[in-house]
Amino acid sequence: MLGFLKEPVVVTAKINVSLVALTVMGLINRLWGLCYPRAVVFDEVYYGQFVSLYMKRIFFVDDSGPPFGHMLLALGAYLGGFDGNFLWNRIGAEYSMNVPVWSLRLLPALAGALCVPLAYQILVELHFSHCAALGAALLILLENSLITQSRFMLLESILIFFILLAVFSYLKFYNLQKHSAFSGSWWFWLLLTGVACSCAVGVKYMGLFTYMLLLATAGLHFWHMIGDQTLSNVSLLCHFLARGLALIIIPMGLYLSFFYVHLALLYRSGPHDQIMTSAFQASLEGGLARITQGQPLEVAYGSQITLRNVLGKPMQCWLHSHTNTYPIRYENGRGSSHQQQVTCYPFKDVNNWWIVKDPGMQQLVVSNPPRPVRHGHIVQLVHGITTRYLNTHDVAAPLSPHSQEVSCYIDYNISMPAQNLWRVEIVNRESDTDVWKTILSEVRFVHVNTSAVLKASGGASLPEWGYRQLEVVGEKLSKGYHQSMVWNVEEHRYGKSQEQKEREVELHSPTQMDISKNLSFMAKFTELQWKILTLKNEDTEHKYSSSALDWITMDTNIAYWLHPTSGAQIHLLGNVATWASANAAALVYLCLSLWYLLRRRRKIYDIPEDAWKLWMSAGGICGGGWAVNYLPFFLMEKTLFLYHYLPAVTFQILLIPVVLQHLSDHLCRSVLLKSMFSALVVAWFSSVYFVYCTFSPVTYGQPALSPTELKALRWKDTWNILIRKQ
């Protein structure tokens, strides 16, 4: 029974020593001296703010992309015990002792290190030689720009890691297709492809480019499968459903989960929630929730309300009035109604309160039981402090003469009667009998007499006589539901005081009633996703911004950090030899491909069919990866930096050994030519290593260089190498 114990238990395993060695070299290359410099480096000043907000559970919106990358950086901070207390206000600021610098930079560095063995594996899965795969990995290892970008609290190295992981996983899956379809390993690599694509998109939307490339590749491969007569219709359907599940459904679900975790972590109100809707703000702890908690849900006749413009651009603002009137004549000579001004005011104020009045009754209090206002009802809006009625008439607005002036009516006993009836239209209603609800309902106010719609006029500020507040107009052409025409009730109470003095006291007091207004996750996700996609900071010229054309020839650099006293500094600069070789490889690949295509059209086959398929598949992945990650930047209207090119140049670097092996195998026909070509490759690779060593001081920031040595590194006049005046 225990006979198996007579023999030793032996476990055998195949270990790729080259792969292990590359991984170790990558870790040393990226992790060495990771805490240096112990100061804020370039965009760490940007991402560090979000890390601190994660540590304090404070909500924020970053228009640069989804939250997954930020959460990974925050994970490093959490593992290091960071409490979030650091003022991220200046590049070069020394980190305080409570900031775990090594932990903050660890995950980007690990991602950068793992890109080295991934490059090796991708070339192997593309069926290139071990020597070519080793060359690809070493080129990634010695690429100065990738080293610099991976050693700080930045997202590009994490993005590139997930991009390469997605490509490698898909190639593994594809190579298992013929012999091991629907096996455990087949499913593993297919699912990992979808997960890696979702993670890449979750780090930065640039990951979407590679995701689209892999979806197109998978679609092309499936198209070829349809022509395979050995596969039944049922088998093809199963293949289609498996790919749809792994490459579309699961990535979408995982992408949603990033936002779910993000919103679950950030439950406290902060400086960024003001750009969100009132309903979103009220779902956060503190801030607006402290004011709105316990408000009545249904707006009734007699309700006291504040109305927030849904657009929120250029800033959030509330419908407002004050005792001042429009000037009799404007600066351009046009006349006004001289009625009481109505504006959109970007701060909370007692003059933001309005009373919803039934036109058929005089009372300004809520009856018992309350009579709710529904979609389509006619109301009057009475300014709480001045008791004047919201009004518009056929008088040109002060800054928008094509629109009507909006005012609070003053009876001057002239031939301009009050026109103060407004129809309530609930934009997001489910039925035509919906009740107007606090925070949740988005409403338009349509003027009964003129059909003009109450609108914030898009950020136009009134002159000094209007205290620089934002203009409100009656928009005559009211096609569609532009957000500037939509308002929601933010603060709300049921009015109880009929007397004006008592009512003014009431308007200053908080509400006490108890009703919850929680948003569903999907509602919060939809709103946050829309804000990320549409909220754009004003692009300003940056000292180190560049155009996409500058990247190919590396005519630009970025100074990441400068030591306050010595000449030590860190720059984002690529390995000149590698970048020039990558450009040459791309050009050679394009020219050879066109040549082969022309010759094949004439039925002349210069290389075997297997070699042709290998050449095209490698070009589709490496060349296609470069194109999809580079060309879209020519269509983008945003401030661009050299680091945006790093995903593209990574694919272009992988193309170098592809071209070199092809030249060696198919164009160097004699032994002498092969020997000469090998010698040239060795000499070329020595130059890559030489450039890496030359620029290492400005890649790692040490050792400090003298002014003379720094001048020697300015290989191009367009490079901004910082030299201190002696």
Description of the molecule:
GO terms for molecular function: dolichyl-phosphate-mannose-protein mannosyltransferase activity. It is a multi-pass membrane protein. The chain is of the alpha+beta class and 726 residues long. It has helices at residues 17-31, 44-55, 68-79, 101-125, 130-141, 144-150, 156-175, 177-180, 184-203, 207-226, 233-265, 278-282, 288-292, 500-507, 521-534, 548-552, 576-601, 609-630, 646-667, 671-700, 707-712; strands at 303-309, 318-325, 340-345, 353-357, 378-383, 390-396, 404-408, 422-426, 443-447, 453-461, 470-475, 487-494, 558-562, 569-572. It starts with 16 loop residues before the first helix and ends in a 14-residue tail after the last helix.
Biggest sheet architecture: 6 strands, antiparallel
CATH architecture descriptor name of the domain at 294-510:
Trefoil
Please compute the radius of gyration using only Cα atoms: 33 Å
CATH secondary-structure class of the domain at 294-510: Mainly Beta
Overall spatial form: elongated
For this structure, the CATH topology of the domain at 294-510 is Trefoil (Acidic Fibroblast Growth Factor, subunit A)
Number of strand elements = 14
Uncertain parts:
511-517
User: What integer is the average pLDDT?
Assistant: 89
Q: State the end-to-end CA separation.
A: 85 Å
Q: Give the neighbour order of strands across the main sheet.
A: 9-8-5-4-1-12
Amount of helix: 40-55%
| Estimated structural class | alpha+beta
| Percent of residues in beta strands | 5-15%
Number of helices, where a helix is a run of at least 4 consecutive DSSP H or I residues: 21
